[in-house]
Structure formats: C-alpha cells, structure tokens
Task: inverse folding
C-alpha cells in the first residue's frame, strides 16, 4: 500500500507540474543550454568552507566560460588578489607574489573552495542530475537541482525567472562542506 501511495503521489506531482507550465527538468535544460553556450561569464560568490572545526570565508570572482577562465579572490583582504587559472582539462593553478591560499581538500576527491565555482559550472553544463524540483530559497521562487559528483552532492537553487543561481551547497556524507551565495552572475559577452 505504501508503494502505491508513493507512486500515486509521484504521479500526481508530475501531472500537476506538467499542467502548470514547464516542468523542472525542462526548465533546467534551458538553463543548461544558456550556461553551456555562454562565451564569457562573470560569477561572483561568497563562499564558506567548513573543514569540520575551522570555517573559512572567501569572496571569489570567476571570469571565463565552460572551457576555462580565471578565479580571483576578492576577500578576505589578507589574500585578496590571488588568482587561479582554470582549465577544465588541467585543473586549477594558483599564483600570486609569494602569497598562499589554503585550498585543502574538503572531500576525498579533492574538492576545495577555490575550485567550487568551476566545478559548479561544469556540473550545470554537463553533470548528472540526480533530482530537480521547485522550491523557495532566500525568499525567491527557485528551481532546485541536485548533481551527484562521485558521492558528493551539489545542490543549486536557480531563480526560476532569471535563471541566475541564488545559492549552492556541496554536501559530503551528511556535512555541508561548501556553501556559495551568489552576488552577481552575468554573461559579459552580451
């Protein structure tokens, strides 16, 4: 009986979403096409990394496309200006005049705060979607999309009207290890 009720609830949810407009997966495919086709993006986000006892907060700016680009640390002031060149084939390379940004791994596969924006962008463009649905986050009607990255969950909430990401989190096990709150996202080629 429980299986029947679960099936019925899922069917009803699917039916209602298809009757009220574009379903979550169809909407996300439009969002995916937008980010995949963008020639030049500028993404600014406040990033919080939780190392299980130590919390680091950064403001990062990503400039580039799905092919690669550059990340710059805007805050905190002590490491502002550090830049990382990003190639989706070669990974992340940090460089700055003698300054060092701790980017220790937050998960077994090496996820770090400095590469979270490129990892998100790659998932938005081609990642495996494990779930999608409508939600409200930070007072905004949003599309919530979950991606499975080798056992790490990436959950992103996109504004349903503008397609701009509102917030995202990486969950490893039961712990949220990285949280991003997006300040600005723009297609700078337009």
Result:
């Amino acid at each position: 009986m429980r299986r029947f009720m679960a099936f019925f609830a899922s069917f009803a949810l699917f039916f209602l979403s298809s009757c009220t407009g574009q379903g979550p997966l169809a909407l996300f495919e439009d969002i995916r096409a937008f980010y995949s086709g963008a020639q030049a993006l500028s993404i600014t986000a406040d990033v919080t990394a939780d190392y299980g006892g130590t919390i680091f907060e950064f403001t990062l700016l990503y400039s580039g496309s799905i092919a690669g680009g550059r990340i710059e640390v805007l805050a905190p002031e002590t490491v502002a200006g550090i830049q990382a060149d990003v190639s989706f084939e070669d990974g992340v390379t940090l460089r700055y005049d003698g300054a060092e940004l701790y980017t220790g791994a937050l998960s077994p596969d090496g996820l770090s705060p400095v590469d979270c924006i490129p990892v998100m962008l790659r998932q938005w463009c081609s990642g495996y979607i494990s779930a999608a649905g409508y939600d409200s986050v930070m007072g905004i009607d949003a599309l919530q999309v979950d991606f499975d990255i080798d056992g790490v969950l990436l959950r992103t909430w996109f504004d349903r009207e503008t397609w701009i990401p509102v917030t995202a989190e990486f969950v490893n096990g039961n712990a949220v290890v990285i949280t991003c709150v997006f300040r600005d996202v723009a297609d700078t080629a337009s």
Q: What stands out?
A: The first strand starts at residue 41 and ends at 50. The two ends are 54 Å apart (CA to CA). Strands lie at 41-50, 55-65, 68-75, 83-87, 91-95, 129-137, 140-149, 152-159, 165-172, 175-187. The CA atoms of residues 130 and 147 lie 5 Å apart.
